[in-house]
Design goal:
49% of the residues lie in helices and 13% in strands. α4 links the parallel β4 and β5. The protein is built from 15 helices and twelve strands. It is elongated and about 85 Å long. By secondary structure, the protein is of the alpha/beta class. It folds into three domains: 123 residues, Response regulator (Rossmann fold, 3-Layer(aba) Sandwich); 149 residues, Hypothetical protein af1432 (Orthogonal Bundle), CATH 1.10.3210; 77 residues, no CATH class. Strands 2-1-3-4-5 form a five-stranded parallel sheet, sandwiched between helices. Strands 6, 7, 10, 11 and 12 form a five-stranded antiparallel sheet that branches. Strands 8-9 form a two-stranded antiparallel sheet.
Length: 398
């Protein structure tokens, strides 16, 4: 019996849309012989539904079809966030220049005239699949670079001031509350702007931030320092690819531009940040959420739709179990309940309120080896009444 051989994986997932059964069959057979996985449909409506369920790598699309022509199908694909990146190659007997131009304007990347030669189809399919994979690889690399840069900045906030980190988390929760209820498309920019909106405050002394955030009297120098923090953060972010708009939201958070009937994302984000910050500042001072909202509504400067989404908002009430642990037993997600100092008390290692990450745990472990740090009092988050402990935790009595 001959040995079994593994079947080579398909070279790509191709969708063909053509109302001519003969063309569909011919194209299917030829592409399958070249090791492509093929799905074919006689109507644009069916193809759109299937693409939404499982997006193909590339679409070969006829133009003259009943119900919905190829231009309309392509325009709908390009209007979808999920499907807009799929390359579309038009197949058509329409050879006039205006027909080809219309195909490119509707979002097509190439145009093959009928009757077609399969060698030409194969060459164009291979070319556009290679281009798409190169674009995806570049996108993935950029995404990883962006995530790494953002993570580094966020860890800087956490290390510098747990108070800043806590306020950023609350502001982020408020902004997410608004975007979810307003069904805002692509909310990642607003979420990221909220997460890093106080990044510039890492340059401020803790007492100056506390006074400014709770609306206490500031000296002229302190006022100037606090007013400058959005510009500081925007300057740090503006040189990171894809964060230019996020930087603008943060830059304008204290003084959003004049309201317009249709606002660009940067202006809408600035308004959202301004509202979230002012709401959090009042709640942080002890004002009830409903009273805080009433105060902000009376100003007349905020979007009524945003204010309406916050009518049912209340800050998250987390439950914790307090324990004193050996350094070897702390886990990511635990929160320091007190400052961690060296044994002689002369060196602050981590501040109270720090949410422990792998990086901060490594810092504690390193200091434990050389500075005799042994114990840390931590708050362990509860979920549905259960303490989240990824491994057995040995508690130590106070």
């Amino acid at each position: 019996m001959p040995p079994l051989t593994e079947q080579a994986p398909p070279l790509g997932n191709i969708m063909i849309v053509d109302d001519n059964p003969h063309n569909l069959k011919l194209m299917e057979d030829m592409l399958r012989q070249q090791r492509y996985e093929v799905l074919s449909f006689p109507r644009g409506r069916l193809a759109l539904a299937a693409a939404d369920q499982e997006p193909p790598d590339l679409i070969l699309l006829d133009i003259n079809m009943p119900e919905m022509n190829g231009y309309e199908v392509c325009e709908r694909l390009k209007a979808s966030t999920r499907l807009s990146d799929i390359p579309v190659i038009f197949l058509s007997a329409l050879n006039a220049t205006e027909d080809k131009v219309k195909g490119f304007r509707s979002g097509g990347v190439d145009y093959i005239s009928k009757p077609f030669q399969f060698e030409e189809v194969q060459a164009r399919v291979e070319t556009h699949l290679k281009l798409r994979r190169a674009q995806q690889a570049e996108h993935d690399l950029l995404e990883r670079t962006l995530n790494g840069a953002v993570s580094t900045l966020w860890e800087s906030v956490q290390l510098t001031s747990p108070t800043l980190a806590a306020r950023c988390r609350t502001i982020r929760n408020i902004v997410l509350w608004i975007t979810e209820r307003m069904v805002i498309r692509d909310p990642w920019q607003y979420e990221l702007a909220a997460t890093l909106c106080l990044l510039g405050c890492i340059a401020l002394p803790d007492d100056v931030f506390e006074k400014a955030y709770t609306d206490q009297d500031l000296s002229p120098d302190e006022e100037q320092m606090f007013r400058a923090h959005p510009e500081t953060a925007a300057r740090l972010l503006s040189n990171i690819p894809r964060l230019e708009e996020v930087a603008e939201m943060i830059r304008m958070q204290q003084r959003p531009p004049a309201k317009l009937p249709v606002m660009p994302p940067s202006a809408q984000g600035a308004y959202m940040l301004h509202l979230a910050l002012e709401l959090d500042r009042r709640i942080y001072r002890g004002v009830a959420p409903r009273d805080a909202l009433a105060q902000l509504r009376s100003w007349g400067r905020f979007d009524d739709r945003m204010l309406d989404t916050l009518q049912s908002y209340s800050p998250r009430q987390a439950e914790f179990e307090l324990r004193r642990l050996q350094i070897r037993d702390v886990r990511p997600g635990m929160i320091l309940d007190e400052d961690v100092l060296s044994k002689d008390g002369n060196l602050l290692i981590l501040k109270a309120g720090t949410v422990l990450t792998e990086t901060w745990i490594e810092r504690l472990e390193n200091f434990a080896r050389v500075r005799s740090v042994e114990l840390a009092r931590v708050r362990i988050p509860r979920v549905a009444g259960i303490v989240k402990s990824p491994a057995p935790v040995h508690s130590v009595s106070e």
